[in-house]
Amino acid sequence: MDIKFLNAQGKISSNIEVKDTIFNSVYNQALIHQIIVSYRANMRKGNRKQKDRKEVHHTTKKPWRQKGTGRARAGMSSSPLWKGGGRCFPNLPNENFSHKINKKMYRIAICSILSQLVRENRLLIIENFSIDSPKTKLLANKLIDMGLNSVLIIVDEFKENLLLSSRNLSNVLFIEPRYINPISLIFYKKVLIIKNALKKVERLLI
């Protein structure tokens, strides 16, 4: 199939042929949902900590005598039933939230997302993308001229000018093909692939 091909100035010049298996695959919503849930879970860190019975600050003195008070028997104030007591099954910092993702499933999901971006006219191929100096204003103006206010740009290699000038722009992200992920592909309104990076993307997803 063919995708719109932009020249260095960001104007549509022609179409470029791409692989159907990657950019014209079936949209699998259930698989994409599963991959996104797994990807977000794998990003999660176990950084919370709760105390169990032996860790809470308390006295070991029996609150009241065993019998004769009419109240339920109690041994110490660290009981999980009491306010300020320890947790039965506390959350620990080494808790593992990761989900297993098969490589084949992940590749199919990425192809499905890319194909849907093509159908929605949100994916474009460009000949080259560069700026003369590492200035945020230059990059912002270039993107405005191209009509890109929220864009993910996939480059074949990082260039210092682009990296430095994009750090203060929350609506722009430059990544290499090996770092393509479902969250970034969906989050940005447009996806721009440099021509030299296109072959790398195809090699990774075949």
TrEMBL record:
GO terms for biological process: translation. Coiled coil: none annotated. Residues 59-70 have a biased composition (Basic residues). GO terms for cellular component: ribonucleoprotein complex; ribosome. Residues 44-78 are annotated as: Disordered. GO terms for molecular function: rRNA binding; structural constituent of ribosome. Keywords: Ribonucleoprotein, Ribosomal protein, RNA-binding, rRNA-binding. It comes from the Bacteria. NCBIfam families: rplD_bact. Belongs to the universal ribosomal protein uL4 family. HAMAP family: Ribosomal_uL4_B. Forms part of the polypeptide exit tunnel. One of the primary rRNA binding proteins, this protein initially binds near the 5'-end of the 23S rRNA. It is important during the early stages of 50S assembly. It makes multiple contacts with different domains of the 23S rRNA in the assembled 50S subunit and ribosome. Part of the 50S ribosomal subunit. This is Large ribosomal subunit protein uL4. It comes from Candidatus Profftella armatura.
